[in-house]
Amino acid sequence: MGMIMDIQKIKKFIDSLFDPEYLKEVNTLEKLEKIKIDFLGKKGIFTSEISKLKNLSKEEKITNAKELNALKNKFLEFYEKYKDELDSNKKPTPTKSDITLPVYDEVGKIHPLRSCRSRAIKIMKDLGFEFEDGPSVENCYYNFDALNIPKDHPSRNERDTFYIKESADSKEKRNILRTHTTAVQIRALESGKYSDNFKVFSIGDVYRRDDDTTHLPMFHQIEGFVVSEEASLATLKHFLLSFLKMFFEKEDLEIRFRPGFFPFTEPSVEVDIKFKSGNWLELLGAGMIRKNIMEKYNMKKGFAFGIGLERITMIKLGLNNMNDFVKNDLYWLKTYGYSSFEHICYS
Ligand code: DAH
């Protein structure tokens, strides 16, 4: 009798595996392994049935073997599925959260130049200045000629200025990467949008062939100019002081004017800022817009100033190497970047 195949027994065994009541019992990997041994082990019911195959006729052998194989696959399917489930249950899952653990802070920061740029824009707008833009690829007329910069001025030299490309044009007509945002002054005056009483500012990229700890070949300038009956060195100082106090968030800020020279302003001044240590640092250039420029656009009196964005950002953050701005060093950005959008405003 023992030699007669009992496929029914195997089927029953397999059916029982899918009985939910039974499954509840199989709650450990050990119990699952025991079932496997009961089925496929040396003395398992499957192994003992399959050993009977050899006594059967050829046809019977084929049909029974097929059936047995299908049952074995069904068993293995069951086994793998529950093994996976029990394996994943084994992984420890935290039951309580530890609120004393440090916060995992991987939020991006805003580059200080970006947030200080926005801060400067906000202050200029609060001071009543209107924004005007100009192109970074400028021509020599707006960048030099219209600003009284003589043809033989050193700043026109190819060693100082980026000329766009060699061309048949004379050097005076060639395009350059603008060397200062003062070029926007002429564009704004020429536009005819402004009459005798206005305040305009611009902010943007400028380029010079310079590269050391305090210079980059590309940097940013803020240009401001005011045309008004009231324009004077005194009102210029008032504006600059207001801007700088707000930018540096320092009420007792001190600045001083020293005589300077710019071809487009007369008188011209260099403006210094006083540090806590008592030392003065040169910060920006400014002056009364020259008569010949004012008259060309039928205007009477005006002042202008040009501020380096990198310079005031470095002072605000206490940096001493301008190259830090462009290093793409994430650690640096985490340290000096801003985490709030407080000052972000787009022009
Ligand atoms: N354009 C000057 C520079 O790049 C800065 C400057 C000086 C701008 C005096 C002005 C000014 O508007 O009046 O160095």
Automatic annotation (TrEMBL):
Its main location: cytoplasm. SUPFAM superfamilies: Class II aaRS and biotin synthetases, tRNA-binding arm. It catalyses: tRNA(Phe) + L-phenylalanine + ATP = L-phenylalanyl-tRNA(Phe) + AMP + diphosphate + H(+). Keywords: Aminoacyl-tRNA synthetase, ATP-binding, Cytoplasm, Ligase, Magnesium, Metal-binding, Nucleotide-binding, Protein biosynthesis. Its EC number is 6.1.1.20. GO terms for cellular component: cytoplasm. It is found in: Cytoplasm. Signal peptide: none annotated. Residues 122-325 form the Aminoacyl-transfer RNA synthetases class-II family profile domain. GO terms for molecular function: ATP binding; metal ion binding; phenylalanine-tRNA ligase activity; tRNA binding. It holds the Pfam family Phe_tRNA-synt_N. One of its GO terms (biological process) is phenylalanyl-tRNA aminoacylation. This is phenylalanine--tRNA ligase. It comes from Candidatus Nesciobacter abundans.
